[in-house]
Design a protein that fits this description.
Shape: elongated
Radius of gyration: 17 Å
Structural class: alpha+beta
Oligomer: single chain
Largest sheet: 5 strands, antiparallel
Low-confidence stretches: none
Number of strands: 7
Helix content: 25-40%
Distance between the termini: 63 Å
């Protein structure tokens, strides 16, 4: 049986993860492609907001949304945001979705790492 849903391992810095699921085929009037739904999950805090360390606002946008405390939609364990992908094969759609979503997560991962490094660098220059 073909994969119906794929869940990535959590990313090392943010703890974000990606879930990609089969949806259906396009409507006949739209085309013959197939559709997958890719959802990016970012763990939230006790107040269902993204963690303070990830609140970059306009400095970092993921999936075309600035990283505010209420980025995405609230879920049980995470805030999430999704996007549909269309292709001619399931494999192509899953691959395109995974590549795109990984690149989006890396924006956040890189912003967090850069911020942490800025603090380390500031300590190194302390007098």
């Amino acid at each position: 049986m073909k994969t119906q849903t794929y869940t990535s391992t959590p990313f090392a810095v943010s703890g974000a993860y990606i879930v990609i699921s089969r949806v259906s085929q396009q409507a006949p009037a739209s085309g013959d492609g197939i559709i997958v739904n890719a959802v990016l999950h970012i763990p939230h805090d006790e107040q269902h907001n993204i963690p303070f360390e990830m609140r970059f606002h306009a400095r970092c946008a993921v999936l075309n949304a600035d990283m505010h405390s209420t980025w995405g939609s609230p879920g049980e364990k995470s805030r999430w945001r999704g996007q549909l992908f269309t292709a001619s094969t399931w494999g192509e759609a899953f691959g395109n979705a995974e590549t795109f979503m990984t690149n989006e997560v890396m924006k956040l991962e890189n912003a967090i790492v850069a911020r942490r490094q800025a603090l380390v660098d500031a300590e190194g220059n302390a007098q």
